[in-house]
Write a structure and sequence with these properties.
The chain has 378 residues and is an alpha/beta fold. It has 2 domains: 11-265, Dihydropteroate synthase-like (TIM Barrel), CATH 3.20.20.20; 291-377, Sulfite Reductase Hemoprotein, domain 1 (2-Layer Sandwich). It contains 13 helices and 15 strands. β14 and β15 form a beta hairpin.
């Protein structure tokens, strides 16, 4: 079988065409800190060798921008940057990259005296000057608070409406060279929000991803669940497989992404375990350049091994690697860890339980897990 025809329009990202009848592209993100020039260039080379169509670099400061400027001179890879909360950096980043991603939730918190439209218009102005594409990236852990207030009982509604609002803003500005991503760590949620958004805006190219999918093989399975259900319906123009893997293995994200597309194209669909409410679910974010301590990957693996005794219990444990998305993306987990450079924050839903060293955290987590199991059994 062949992939179904897609209804999205074609956009241009440097020399790459995306959307419409063009092949589904596969991308990933450099795992190292951007100012680590040798390490980041190595990451770019690893991802290029694996066949990445686009490579994302995290930017959070002027020093990161200077590092990117040096890297740009050493590679002709199609580069994407994430503005995070520093949307004003778009002015100096647009000449260096082919695509800029902004998060409506992060945009909300910066320069609150300005309207969303004014902030987006400024980003668009920089993009137009330098022929940059834009991605509106809506993430479950950092949704625009305004939409969360309007839909306090449904993150799904808040995510969809936030994305739709920014499409309307971009359209009203006459800017069409954009795509959208709507991401969650739950593959079922990813399927639902992308199907619903696509029904509203079938013309808008979509970037697919299960954020914090976690460690292989479970992270691959969760991602496959979502991608099979969406791509087989003609939804999705580019994708990212977000796995918690050692830095030198980041090319695996590209290989897995291409394998999933090939399987769908050839009619191979695999049975998957239930990641709903019946079993232990461990989610962890990909090892990207925002991670401030590489021990995060080892910790995620250790949590997975330690928690196997609880595999038949409907408990979610989230292991997040940074301060940007970590606090928000652990709120919905029964137990959450988000990693700082020298310590790990432990949470129970939204409740902060304390900060522990990387050596102390595992037994402390096990103690909370034991208590949670006992409460559920009672």
């Amino acid at each position: 079988m062949s992939l179904p025809q897609r209804t999205s329009r074609t956009i241009q990202i440097g020399r790459l065409k995306m959307g419409g009848s063009n092949p589904i592209t596969v991308q990933s993100m450099a795992a190292t800190r951007t100012q680590d020039l040798e390490g980041t260039l190595r990451q770019i080379r690893i991802l290029e060798k694996a066949g990445a169509d686009l490579i994302r670099i995290a930017i959070d400061s002027d020093k990161d921008v200077e590092a990117l400027r040096i890297l740009r001179a050493q590679t002709d890879a199609i580069l994407v940057v994430d503005l995070q909360e520093s949307y004003r950096l778009a002015e100096v980043l647009a000449p260096l990259v082919q695509k800029i991603r902004y998060n409506p939730g992060h945009l909300h918190h910066h320069e609150k005296q300005k309207s969303k439209r004014d902030k987006v218009a400024w980003i668009v102005e920089q993009a137009v000057k330098h022929n940059c594409a834009l991605r509106v990236g809506v993430n479950c852990g950092s949704v625009d608070p305004e939409w969360l207030e309007k839909f306090p009982d449904s993150d799904e509604e808040a995510i969809i409406h936030s994305a739709a609002e920014h499409c309307e803003i971009l359209d009203s500005l006459g800017f069409k060279n954009y795509l959208v991503s709507l991401k969650d760590s739950d593959p079922k949620q990813v399927i639902d929000i992308n199907r619903r958004f696509h029904a509203m805006r079938p013309d808008v190219p979509l970037h697919l991803g299960v954020t914090e999918a976690g460690l292989p093989p479970e992270g691959i399975i969760k991602t496959r669940v979502a991608f099979e259900q969406l791509i087989s319906r003609g939804i999705g123009d580019t994708l990212r497989v977000s796995l918690t893997v050692p830095f030198d293995d980041k090319g695996e994200e590209i290989r897995v992404g291409r394998a999933i597309i090939k399987d769908i194209e050839e009619g191979r669909f695999r049975s998957v375990p239930d990641f709903g409410e019946k079993k232990l679910n461990i989610i962890s974010c990909p090892s990207c350049s925002r991670v401030e301590n590489e021990k995060f990957v080892e910790l995620a693996m250790a949590v997975k091994d330690m928690a196997q005794y609880a595999k038949e219990h409907a408990i979610t444990i989230a292991v997040m690697g940074c301060r940007v998305n970590g606090p928000g993306e652990t709120d919905d987990a029964d137990l959450g860890l988000w990693c700082a450079p020298t310590f790990v924050n432990l949470k129970k839903k939204e409740e902060e339980l304390g900060k522990y060293s990387y050596e102390e955290i595992l037994p402390r987590l096990k103690n909370e897990l034991d208590q949670l199991i006992a409460q559920k059994q009672a």
